[in-house]
Design brief:
154 residues; alpha+beta; 2 domains; 3-stranded mixed sheet; 5 helices; 6 strands; 46% helix; 19% strand; globular; binds zinc ion
Length: 154
């Protein structure tokens, strides 16, 4: 693998081991040219997924981006990184299982909301407020009210 820092082609794997849930192999890599170290993950990919935005734009499904938005929603919440990794894996498997290569962003967003709702209410509201793109505070308040109704219904 090419060094992401200096572009040197001959880099080394220093350590290779499965992640905690054994869903991926984590490799520590080293560049003898510039001394940089970084990590790569080897994961199962059953399908090439493409995410389609509401305006029709398409982009390859980016699990790192998904993990980052989860990490932002879960900032300072009592949820560890491995849990985020497992959620992302679960969402990716479910998306692959849909049998479609092109997935509307809405579907991904709903899956994230579902996971966060079960995991952490604060993170759920944070994610929902960004995901649903509330333009007015009032919309957000209404949303939180409906949230309360759902809780009572459960
Ligand atoms: Zn390098």
């Amino acid at each position: 693998m090419r060094c992401p820092f200096c572009g040197h082609l001959d880099t080394q794997v220093k350590d290779s081991r499965p992640t905690e849930d054994h869903a991926a192999i984590r490799r520590r890599r080293f560049c003898p040219e510039c001394g940089s170290r970084w990590t790569t993950f080897e994961r199962v990919q059953l399908r090439e997924l493409v995410v389609v935005k509401s305006n029709g734009d398409k982009a390859p499904f980016d699990r790192d981006k998904l993990a980052r938005s989860l990490a932002i929603a879960l900032r300072k919440r009592p949820v560890d990184e491995d849990r985020i990794e497992r959620i992302v894996n679960g969402i990716q498997r479910r998306l692959e299982a849909l049998g479609e290569n092109e997935i509307p962003t809405k579907v991904v967003g709903e899956m994230v909301m579902e996971n966060l709702r079960d995991l952490d209410m604060v993170a759920y509201v944070r994610f929902a407020s960004v995901y649903k793109n509330f333009r007015e505070a009032r919309d957000f308040e209404e949303f939180v009210e409906h949230l309360g109704e759902d809780d009572l219904a459960d």
